[in-house]
Amino acid sequence: MDHRVYGVETEFGLTHRPETGRGLPPDELARYLFRPVVEFGRSSNIFIPNGSRLYLDVGSHPEYATAECDDLIDLIASDRAGERVMHDLAVEAEERIHRDGFTGQVYVLKNNVDSAGNSYGSHENYLIPRTTHFRRLSGILLPFLVTRQIISGAGRVVPAEDSREAHFAFSQRADHMWEGISSATTRSRPIINTRDEPHADAANHRRLHVIVGDSNMSTATSLLRYGSTDLVLRMIEAGVPIEDFELENPIAAIRAISHDITGRAGVRTRNGEQVTAVQIQRGIFQRVSRFISEHGAHHEHVDQILELWERALEAVESGDHSLIDQDIDWAIKKRLVEDVSNQRGLGMDHPRLEQIDMAYHDVNPDRGLFHLLVRRGRATDFVTDEQVTRAMTTPPPTRAAIRGEFLSTARVYGAECTVDWVHHKLTDRPLEAIMVKDPFAQHDERIESLLDRLGDRKNHLRERSLHERIQQGVTLALTDKYSLAPGTVVPEPPLI
Ligand SMILES: Nc1ncnc2c1ncn2[C@@H]1O[C@H](COP(=O)(O)OP(=O)(O)OP(=O)(O)O)[C@@H](O)[C@H]1O
Ligand SMILES: [Mg+2]
Question: Which residues form the active site (predicted)?
Fold first, then answer.
């Protein structure tokens, strides 16, 4: 597909560190964090005006799922907007906690393992044609995803355990994957999840659900991660043959690769060959490059993605990690950890280094170490504050725009509504639930006419300025797009 819909779901780690004693239990802390969400949407599982979903599962890992995006920069900005939402909620939660007589700070971490060893995810969603042969898809995509950590892993300080010494690994998630492909997400944690929920026209499309990725802080790394995966999918869809990297044991391979930062860990393919992650990635990279030179780039960031991809492989192969230590999360973090360990004379097993690993993922823009490195010019970041602010209030130009407008209009008229990725329903007109199956659609006449029945939108609605919205709520993402023009009398909803 030249034109694809993407979405990323991020689960965040949440901790309270009081001045003395134990912090609040995780579920209580999560309730503090989500109080403004519940006040805004009367539920802890809501869609918000920018088209994204904010969600607190039974556990205590708040989740933000970006709206459907058809552009990688929109996707990355929307994902960063999710970090900003979590940060704003944490600031508010901390204030409430203090008002309730507790001390200390609230940390929201965009990482994938907590200090107790629990893992939480960063799931990618790619719209693919239903005609894509699943066996062929997995034959090519699995080896790509198993080895993708060397170009887009978040890096991890791994503490000593039994016979294993403390060391630095490529990935946070690799040790927590248990299966190659399956339809379960929590029980078995597959790399590719096959649960068939396309959130689109099921006759023509699938939603490919990839569960294996690390949460990235660096926007350059995110671009490479989603951009390279899209390119590989594009080649699969075009029928280019690349089946010779199928792995004998993908789960053993993903772990072996993660724990050998030289990139030389050997893994066995099904044809009995011993190969390294760099060899697999190089093989795929070369075919992608050839494919692009034959078919042309399908968006403006392809050259940048290929340049970064090649440089990352060169860095791993040569051992000269300085080639990517401003762009790729694991290398940025590794340099930071090495700097601290050299300056302070700390061994790799020193607990301070694990804390640095966690602090790298702190979403607080003033305190988080990734953000600090950006300010010091030690890490690149190409999504601007303006783009993130926009992504907090404005849906991307996909079906999310319809959802955002529907929610914003219903809210200003005080009309109760429910939505999900596909459905739109006004509660007092339940028979008129409208499905928008096309994730690229930006306009839907049926929804327009349903909203028209709420009132004369043109004359009633006034769009709030950014300044007004900033004044309005805890976080920009939980503010209303519209207010009613002065003198507007909202008609009573007609009885069904
Ligand atoms: N047709 C589509 N193709 C690709 N991605 C989509 C499509 N429709 C929605 N998405 C994206 O898929 C993600 C769905 O997130 P959500 O958290 O609801 O996932 P889920 O797998 O349905 O459910 P859960 O997290 O509850 O298991 C969002 O990021 C959304 O933007
Ligand atoms: Mg989800």
Answer: 57 (proton acceptor)
141: in domain: yes
Q: Which ligand is nearest to the CA of 419?
A: 1
- Atom of ligand 1 at shortest distance to CA of 8? 29
Ligand 1, atom 11: closest residue by C-alpha: 7
Q: Count CB neighbours of 294 within 10 A.
A: 9
> Ligand 2 centroid vs 55 CA: distance in angstroms?
8
With the CA atoms of 467, 473, 474 and 480 taken in that order, what torsion angle do they form, in degrees rounded to the nearest 10?
A: -100
What's the pLDDT at 166? Answer: 95
Q: Which residues line ligand 1 (CB under 6 A)?
A: 5, 7-9, 53, 65-68, 125-127, 197-200, 207, 209, 421, 439
Look up the pTM and report it: 0.96
402 and 346 in a common domain: no
Residue 29 covered by a domain: no
One domain, residues 356 and 237:
yes
- Regarding whether 272 and 186 lie in a shared domain, the answer is yes
State which residues form the domain around 464: 396-484
Please indicate if the annotation marks 445 as binding a ligand: no
- pLDDT tens for 365-383 read 999 999 999 999 999 998 9
Q: 180 and 326: one domain?
A: yes
Question: How many domains is the chain partitioned into structurally?
Answer: 2
Question: From ligand 2's centre to the CA of 65, what distance in Å?
Answer: 6
Beta bridge partners of 397: none
Best residue for ligand 1 mutational test, from 10, 48, 194, 207 (most atoms within 8 Å of Cβ):
207
In the predicted model, is pLDDT for residue 243 greater than 80? Answer: no
Q: Which of 286, 173, 311 is nearest to 231 (CA)?
A: 286
pLDDT for position 425: 94
Residue nearest to atom 14 of ligand 1 (CA): 65
HSE-CB at 336 with a 13 A cutoff on CA atoms is 32
CA distance 73 to 71: 6
Query: Is 63 annotated to bind ligand?
Result: yes
Averaged pLDDT of the chain: 94
| Judgement on whether residues 324 and 184 belong to the same structural domain of the protein | yes
Question: Is residue 9 annotated as involved in ligand binding?
Answer: yes
- Average pLDDT score over residue span 203-218: 95
